[in-house]
Every structure is written in structure tokens, then in C-alpha cells.
Amino acid sequence: MWETIVGKLLGSFGEEVAGYYRDRQKLKHQKELVKLEGKIAYEEAKLRRAESSEGRDHEWELESIRNSGWKDEWVLIILSIPLILVFIPGTTDVALRGFEALEQTPDWFRWLVTMIYAATYGIRLWRRR
């Protein structure tokens, strides 16, 4: 309706001005659609990467279980020895002296042992956010 009134008042120039504003609104709308499509594509790609990563982690864990053999049990037994010794009368001092001796080892050795145990049990700190 307004286009008709403005068009009659201004003649063909009014129609051109109205067309310009209509085209400008269409372009603005198209830009917004392109932005939204880009955001959607970005989020979909992010989701696919996360799903793919979880799938690889699952496959790695299954393979680790298949190949573990006695390794996991051995680590569990070794870690349980001090825990057991603390509750047996007369062996508490042995466990405590062992921990005091471990405090004398270099930092790199303690980190190495920690990382080996973490890898054995599949503890992945990078997945925690």
C-alpha cells in the first residue's frame, strides 16, 4: 500500500527507491541466512569430530583390554602390597620405609611410574574438561 502511495507521489523515481530498499532488505536477509548456515555447518562438524574421537577412544580401550594379559593384574598386585602391609601387625614399618625410600627417587622416575600406571588403566586426562 505504501509503495503505491509513494509511487504515485514520486512517480517512477519512487518505485526505484522502493525497489532499492526491498533489494537491500533481501540482501541483508540473505547475509543473515549465510551466517546461520555457516554456524550450523561449524557445529555439525564439531559434533562429527567429537563422535569420531569417542569412537576411536572406544576402539583403543577395546584393543587395550584384548592385549592386556597379566599386565593389569600385576600392577594391581604391586599397588596392593603396601595397602595390605599397613594392616598386618609388624609390617607397617616396612611399608612406611618403602614410601620413605620412594621419596628419595628422582622426580622423573616418579612421573614415569605414574604415567605407566595411568596408561595401564586407561586414564586419559585430556578427555576431562
Question: What's the order of the H and E elements?
Answer: HHHHH
- The average pLDDT score comes to 79
Q: What is the count of DSSP helices, taking H or I runs of 4+ residues?
A: 5
Write down how many β-strands occur, each being a DSSP E stretch of 2 or more residues.
Answer: 0
Name the overall outline. rod-shaped
Percent of sequence in beta strands = under 5%
Please indicate the count of domains: 2
Helix content: over 70%
Low-confidence stretches: none
Structural class: mainly alpha
Q: For the terminal residues, how far apart are their CA atoms?
A: 57 Å
The radius of gyration is 35 Å
Characterization of the model:
This protein is mainly alpha-helical and 129 residues long. The chain has two domains: 1-67; 69-129, no CATH class. It has helices at residues 2-10, 12-67, 71-87, 92-103, 107-120. It is rod-shaped, with a radius of gyration of 35 Å.
Topology summary:
Blueprint: H1 2-10, H2 12-67, H3 71-87, H4 92-103, H5 107-120
Helix pairs in contact: 1-2, 3-4
